[in-house]
Amino acid sequence: MRTTVIALLLLIGCLGGYAQTEVDSDSLFTITSDSALLQDMAPLDTLAREDLRRLDTPAVLDSLQETEKPKKRDWSTWTPNPQRALWLALVIPGGGQIYNRKYWKLPLVYGGFLGCAYALTWNDMMYKDYSQAYIDITDGDPTTASYNKFMHLGRQINDKNIDRYKDIFRKRKDKYRRWRDLSFFVMIGVYAISVIDAYVDAELSVFDISRDLSLKVQPTVIGTSLSNNPIYASSLGVNCQLNF
């Protein structure tokens, strides 16, 4: 009986040692596998660090900042829209020239408007003054004598020269009225020219102006069928050739 118990104890001890050996071998295999995995991942870690170091360079950072910033309009390749230039010129005098970026034309446009406005105001004032003087000289009332401000060097109007001054005041009244109306139409003309200029300038902004545009003039022989004689069946002429 004692011998049987001792044999069982020895058997249990052998089994426990074998199990411990198996566990140690598994742990060793696991450690070995982890070491191999770490060695395999080492080059990947190095590449990742190199990539991060490469991304930290100023050139890459500047490129990233440029992509994040909104792109600015390239004015060197910008072309105006003719319809928009037309409407801006109609609504705002000189607006079409501003939209087409032809700022040097603004003094011409606004100078024309200011000149016409001054001429319109001046001629209207002179027309009213001479109209009133003509009315006063023809009504026969001595108390209404606004025409005296047009008399120079102490001249006076009497019965001998009143008809001549009536004719003078009438002609000057009509002259300044015509000039006033002409100033108004010239102002309309300046406005129309500014509108047309804005539209045409926008249209011509995409017009092809190249070296292929040329005109060639050269002599040539022109054949005719008016005569059977070969000498008289042809004539000399000029050939004009336009390339566009």
Description of the structure:
By secondary structure, the protein is mostly helical. Helix content is 64%, strand content 8%. The protein has helices at 2-55, 58-68, 82-91, 95-99, 106-138, 162-204, and strands at residues 214-223, 234-243. It has a two-stranded antiparallel sheet. The termini are far apart.
Chain-wise SSE layout:
Elements lengths: L1 H54 L2 H11 L13 H10 L3 H5 L6 H33 L23 H43 L9 E10 L10 E10 L1
Antiparallel strand pairs: 1-2
Helix pairs in contact: 3-6, 5-6
List keywords for this structure.
244 residues; mainly alpha; two-stranded antiparallel ribbon; elongated
Question: Strand order across the biggest sheet?
Answer: 1-2
Q: Which range does the strand content fall in?
A: 5-15%
- How large is the radius of gyration? 52 Å
Number of discrete helical segments: 6
* Mean pLDDT over the full residue set: 74
Order of helix and strand elements from N to C terminus? HHHHHHEE
Largest sheet: 2 strands, antiparallel
The outline comes out as: elongated
How does the helix and strand content classify structurally?
Answer: mainly alpha
Strands, total number: 2
End-to-end separation: 126 Å
Helix content range: 55-70%
Low-confidence spans: pLDDT under 50, at least 5 residues? 18-38
